[in-house]
Amino acid sequence: MDRGLYVAAAGMRAEQVRQDQLAGDLANAATPGYKRDRSIQTSFGDLLLSNTRTGAVVGRAGLGPYVSATVTDIRPSAARDTGEPLDFAIEGDGFFAVRTPEGTRYARSGQFGASPRGTLVDAQGHDVLGPGGQPVRVAADGTVAPDALGVTMLTDPVKRGEGLFDGTPAGTAGAGAVKQGALEGSGVDPTRAMVDMIASLRAFEAGQKSITTIDETLGRAASQVGNANGS
Known about the structure:
The protein is of the alpha+beta class. The chain contains two helices and 16 strands. The strands form six sheets. Strands 7, 8, 11, 12, 13 and 14 form a six-stranded antiparallel beta sheet that branches. A two-stranded antiparallel ribbon has the order 1-4. It has helices at 3-27, 190-224, and strands spanning 37-43, 46-50, 57-62, 65-72, 79-81, 88-91, 95-100, 103-107, 113-114, 120-121, 127-128, 151-152, 154-161, 164-169, 177-180, 182-184. Helix 1 (3-27) packs antiparallel against helix 2 (190-224). Strand 13 and strand 14 (164-169) form a beta hairpin. The chain folds into two domains: 3-73 and 188-224, no CATH class; 79-184, no CATH class.
Protein backbone atom coordinates (compact mmCIF):
# COMPACT_ATOMS: atom_id res chain seq x y z
CA MET A 1 0.00 0.00 0.00
CA ASP A 2 1.28 3.45 -0.90
CA ARG A 3 2.59 5.21 2.21
CA GLY A 4 1.09 8.47 0.98
CA LEU A 5 -2.40 7.12 1.65
CA TYR A 6 -1.60 6.72 5.34
CA VAL A 7 0.03 10.15 5.57
CA ALA A 8 -2.99 11.84 3.97
CA ALA A 9 -5.44 9.86 6.11
CA ALA A 10 -3.53 10.79 9.30
CA GLY A 11 -3.68 14.46 8.35
CA MET A 12 -7.41 14.26 7.65
CA ARG A 13 -8.05 12.57 11.00
CA ALA A 14 -6.12 15.26 12.87
CA GLU A 15 -8.05 18.00 11.05
CA GLN A 16 -11.34 16.29 11.87
CA VAL A 17 -10.52 16.53 15.57
CA ARG A 18 -9.65 20.20 15.09
CA GLN A 19 -12.92 20.85 13.25
CA ASP A 20 -14.94 19.22 16.05
CA GLN A 21 -13.26 21.52 18.57
CA LEU A 22 -13.83 24.61 16.44
CA ALA A 23 -17.48 23.66 15.95
CA GLY A 24 -17.84 23.44 19.73
CA ASP A 25 -16.19 26.84 20.08
CA LEU A 26 -18.55 28.47 17.60
CA ALA A 27 -21.58 26.88 19.25
CA ASN A 28 -20.48 28.39 22.59
CA ALA A 29 -19.35 31.80 21.37
CA ALA A 30 -22.02 33.42 23.57
CA THR A 31 -21.87 30.97 26.52
CA PRO A 32 -20.75 32.69 29.75
CA GLY A 33 -17.45 31.38 31.09
CA TYR A 34 -16.85 28.99 28.18
CA LYS A 35 -13.21 28.03 27.61
CA ARG A 36 -11.98 27.01 24.19
CA ASP A 37 -9.93 23.90 23.44
CA ARG A 38 -6.95 23.52 21.16
CA SER A 39 -5.45 20.30 19.81
CA ILE A 40 -1.69 19.87 19.61
CA GLN A 41 -0.62 18.07 16.45
CA THR A 42 2.60 16.08 16.49
CA SER A 43 4.35 14.20 13.70
CA PHE A 44 4.56 10.43 13.87
CA GLY A 45 8.19 10.90 12.90
CA ASP A 46 10.25 10.78 9.73
CA LEU A 47 11.29 7.78 7.73
CA LEU A 48 14.90 7.86 6.50
CA LEU A 49 14.99 6.93 2.82
CA SER A 50 18.04 5.40 1.18
CA ASN A 51 19.01 3.88 -2.14
CA THR A 52 18.37 0.13 -1.92
CA ARG A 53 21.35 -0.64 -4.17
CA THR A 54 24.01 1.75 -2.93
CA GLY A 55 22.76 2.57 0.56
CA ALA A 56 23.14 6.30 -0.11
CA VAL A 57 20.79 8.49 1.89
CA VAL A 58 18.05 9.95 -0.29
CA GLY A 59 16.18 12.02 2.32
CA ARG A 60 13.36 11.84 4.82
CA ALA A 61 9.65 11.21 4.37
CA GLY A 62 7.11 12.33 6.97
CA LEU A 63 4.63 9.82 8.35
CA GLY A 64 1.85 12.30 8.99
CA PRO A 65 0.48 14.11 12.07
CA TYR A 66 -1.64 12.98 14.99
CA VAL A 67 -3.33 14.79 17.88
CA SER A 68 -1.03 14.27 20.86
CA ALA A 69 -2.93 16.40 23.40
CA THR A 70 -5.89 18.70 23.90
CA VAL A 71 -5.28 21.92 25.82
CA THR A 72 -7.96 24.16 27.35
CA ASP A 73 -7.30 27.89 27.43
CA ILE A 74 -8.46 28.84 30.94
CA ARG A 75 -7.34 32.46 30.82
CA PRO A 76 -9.99 34.81 32.23
CA SER A 77 -12.22 36.64 29.76
CA ALA A 78 -13.70 40.09 30.11
CA ALA A 79 -16.85 40.40 32.22
CA ARG A 80 -20.00 42.22 31.14
CA ASP A 81 -22.53 43.79 33.46
CA THR A 82 -26.00 42.22 33.50
CA GLY A 83 -27.58 43.84 36.55
CA GLU A 84 -28.97 40.46 37.63
CA PRO A 85 -28.48 39.89 41.40
CA LEU A 86 -27.66 36.19 40.99
CA ASP A 87 -25.14 36.65 38.17
CA PHE A 88 -21.51 36.55 39.31
CA ALA A 89 -18.16 36.86 37.56
CA ILE A 90 -14.68 36.07 38.84
CA GLU A 91 -12.34 38.94 38.05
CA GLY A 92 -9.09 37.04 37.74
CA ASP A 93 -8.23 33.39 38.23
CA GLY A 94 -10.15 30.70 40.07
CA PHE A 95 -13.37 28.71 39.84
CA PHE A 96 -16.75 28.50 41.55
CA ALA A 97 -17.33 25.14 43.28
CA VAL A 98 -20.58 23.22 42.71
CA ARG A 99 -21.84 19.95 44.15
CA THR A 100 -22.75 17.32 41.53
CA PRO A 101 -23.71 13.62 41.72
CA GLU A 102 -20.12 12.88 40.64
CA GLY A 103 -18.65 14.98 43.44
CA THR A 104 -17.43 18.55 43.58
CA ARG A 105 -16.88 20.15 40.20
CA TYR A 106 -15.79 23.66 39.27
CA ALA A 107 -17.08 26.30 36.87
CA ARG A 108 -16.16 29.73 35.55
CA SER A 109 -19.72 30.61 34.63
CA GLY A 110 -21.56 32.40 37.41
CA GLN A 111 -25.01 32.40 35.80
CA PHE A 112 -26.87 31.13 38.85
CA GLY A 113 -30.43 30.99 40.14
CA ALA A 114 -32.39 30.13 43.26
CA SER A 115 -33.67 26.62 43.94
CA PRO A 116 -37.01 25.82 45.66
CA ARG A 117 -34.89 24.93 48.70
CA GLY A 118 -33.56 28.45 48.89
CA THR A 119 -30.03 27.57 47.76
CA LEU A 120 -27.97 29.06 44.96
CA VAL A 121 -27.75 26.67 42.00
CA ASP A 122 -26.21 26.59 38.54
CA ALA A 123 -28.06 25.99 35.26
CA GLN A 124 -28.07 22.22 35.87
CA GLY A 125 -29.49 22.56 39.38
CA HIS A 126 -26.21 21.85 41.20
CA ASP A 127 -25.73 23.60 44.52
CA VAL A 128 -23.11 26.34 44.48
CA LEU A 129 -20.72 25.97 47.42
CA GLY A 130 -19.37 28.63 49.73
CA PRO A 131 -15.86 28.91 51.24
CA GLY A 132 -16.71 26.24 53.84
CA GLY A 133 -17.97 23.74 51.26
CA GLN A 134 -21.63 24.20 52.19
CA PRO A 135 -24.46 25.25 49.83
CA VAL A 136 -24.89 29.01 49.52
CA ARG A 137 -28.21 30.30 50.83
CA VAL A 138 -30.24 32.89 48.95
CA ALA A 139 -31.57 35.71 51.14
CA ALA A 140 -35.29 36.46 51.43
CA ASP A 141 -34.87 39.40 49.07
CA GLY A 142 -33.43 37.10 46.39
CA THR A 143 -29.82 38.21 46.70
CA VAL A 144 -26.52 36.65 47.70
CA ALA A 145 -23.49 38.52 49.01
CA PRO A 146 -20.45 38.06 46.73
CA ASP A 147 -18.25 36.97 49.64
CA ALA A 148 -20.64 34.07 50.31
CA LEU A 149 -19.31 32.31 47.20
CA GLY A 150 -16.11 30.35 47.34
CA VAL A 151 -13.42 30.84 44.70
CA THR A 152 -10.96 27.97 44.37
CA MET A 153 -7.72 27.70 42.44
CA LEU A 154 -7.21 24.43 40.57
CA THR A 155 -4.16 22.47 39.53
CA ASP A 156 -4.44 20.92 36.04
CA PRO A 157 -8.15 21.64 35.44
CA VAL A 158 -9.83 19.26 33.00
CA LYS A 159 -13.13 19.82 31.19
CA ARG A 160 -15.95 17.47 32.20
CA GLY A 161 -18.78 18.86 30.07
CA GLU A 162 -21.64 21.31 30.71
CA GLY A 163 -19.13 24.03 31.54
CA LEU A 164 -17.73 22.06 34.50
CA PHE A 165 -14.12 21.27 35.32
CA ASP A 166 -12.37 18.73 37.49
CA GLY A 167 -9.00 19.24 39.10
CA THR A 168 -6.99 19.33 42.30
CA PRO A 169 -7.97 22.23 44.60
CA ALA A 170 -4.99 24.47 45.34
CA GLY A 171 -6.51 26.79 47.95
CA THR A 172 -7.57 30.38 47.43
CA ALA A 173 -4.19 32.09 47.13
CA GLY A 174 -4.12 34.12 43.94
CA ALA A 175 -7.85 33.71 43.31
CA GLY A 176 -9.78 36.60 41.81
CA ALA A 177 -12.57 38.63 43.37
CA VAL A 178 -16.26 37.93 42.82
CA LYS A 179 -18.26 40.65 41.07
CA GLN A 180 -22.03 40.65 41.44
CA GLY A 181 -24.38 41.51 38.58
CA ALA A 182 -21.91 40.48 35.89
CA LEU A 183 -20.98 37.44 33.80
CA GLU A 184 -17.67 36.41 32.31
CA GLY A 185 -17.81 36.33 28.53
CA SER A 186 -16.94 33.36 26.36
CA GLY A 187 -13.28 32.76 25.62
CA VAL A 188 -14.07 32.34 21.92
CA ASP A 189 -13.31 34.90 19.23
CA PRO A 190 -15.93 33.99 16.57
CA THR A 191 -13.99 35.66 13.75
CA ARG A 192 -10.78 33.83 14.58
CA ALA A 193 -12.67 30.55 14.99
CA MET A 194 -14.25 30.93 11.53
CA VAL A 195 -10.86 31.66 9.94
CA ASP A 196 -9.39 28.60 11.66
CA MET A 197 -12.34 26.47 10.52
CA ILE A 198 -11.86 27.51 6.89
CA ALA A 199 -8.12 26.76 7.09
CA SER A 200 -8.84 23.35 8.63
CA LEU A 201 -11.42 22.52 5.94
CA ARG A 202 -8.93 23.39 3.21
CA ALA A 203 -6.30 21.16 4.83
CA PHE A 204 -8.86 18.35 5.05
CA GLU A 205 -9.79 18.79 1.37
CA ALA A 206 -6.08 18.71 0.41
CA GLY A 207 -5.82 15.32 2.11
CA GLN A 208 -8.87 14.10 0.19
CA LYS A 209 -7.38 15.24 -3.12
CA SER A 210 -4.09 13.53 -2.28
CA ILE A 211 -5.86 10.23 -1.61
CA THR A 212 -7.86 10.55 -4.84
CA THR A 213 -4.68 11.25 -6.85
CA ILE A 214 -2.78 8.35 -5.27
CA ASP A 215 -5.75 6.03 -5.84
CA GLU A 216 -5.95 6.98 -9.51
CA THR A 217 -2.19 6.49 -9.91
CA LEU A 218 -2.32 3.06 -8.29
CA GLY A 219 -5.31 2.14 -10.46
CA ARG A 220 -3.45 3.03 -13.64
CA ALA A 221 -0.36 1.16 -12.47
CA ALA A 222 -2.41 -1.96 -11.69
CA SER A 223 -4.18 -1.88 -15.05
CA GLN A 224 -0.89 -1.59 -16.93
CA VAL A 225 1.00 -4.37 -15.13
CA GLY A 226 1.99 -6.96 -17.67
CA ASN A 227 1.17 -4.72 -20.60
CA ALA A 228 4.37 -4.64 -22.62
CA ASN A 229 3.28 -1.54 -24.53
CA GLY A 230 2.47 0.34 -21.29
CA SER A 231 -0.82 1.59 -22.77
